[in-house]
């Protein structure tokens, strides 16, 4: 495994689809702004849902996210999650 940078657009689309599904919304990904709060008026992501989303994103994007990556980090917006996945995921080379 090596650390490669994923395409931000691909990661953002995957994240938006997963947060929409987790929030049980019937909207398209382009209706979710990058600065949309993960737990706000539209999206409702709790800690258990967050863990499930990470597993789904690993599978969909073919990446591995190390557990310690999330220690001490705060995820308040869609962009926060996109940034971490894009910059710190391990992809098979």
What does this structure look like?
- This protein is mainly alpha-helical and 93 residues long.
- It has 3 helices and 3 strands, in the order E-H-H-E-H-E.
- It has helices spanning 8-22, 47-61, 78-88, and strands spanning 2-3, 63-64, 90-91.
- It has a 3-stranded antiparallel β-sheet with strand order 1-3-2.
- Helix 1 crosses helix 2 and helix 1 (8-22) crosses helix 3.
- The longest helix has 15 residues, at 8-22.
- The model has no long low-confidence stretch (mean pLDDT 87).
Helix-residue proportion: 40-55%
Q: What is the topology, as strand order, of the major beta sheet? A: 1-3-2
Separation of termini? 6 Å
Question: Hey, roughly how much beta strand do the residues contain?
Answer: 5-15%
Apparent shape: globular
The structure class reads mainly alpha
Mean pLDDT: 87
Describe what is shown at a glance.
With 93 residues, the chain is mainly α. It is 44% helix and 6% strand. It has 3 helices and 3 strands.
Task: List the main descriptive attributes of the protein structure presented here.
93 residues, mainly alpha, 3-stranded antiparallel β-sheet, 3 helices, 3 strands, globular
List the helices and strands and how they pair.
Blueprint: E1 2-3, H1 8-22, H2 47-61, E2 63-64, H3 78-88, E3 90-91
Antiparallel strand pairs: 1-3, 2-3
Helix pairs in contact: 1-2, 1-3
């Amino acid at each position: 495994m090596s650390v490669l940078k994923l395409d931000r657009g691909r990661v953002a689309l995957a994240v938006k689809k997963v947060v929409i599904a987790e929030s049980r919304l019937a909207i398209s990904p382009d209706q979710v702004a990058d600065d949309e709060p993960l737990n706000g008026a539209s999206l409702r992501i709790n800690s258990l849902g967050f863990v499930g989303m990470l597993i789904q994103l690993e599978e969909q994007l073919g990446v591995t996210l190390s557990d310690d990556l999330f220690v001490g980090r705060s995820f308040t917006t869609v962009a926060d999650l996109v940034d971490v996945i894009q910059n710190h995921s391990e992809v098979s080379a």
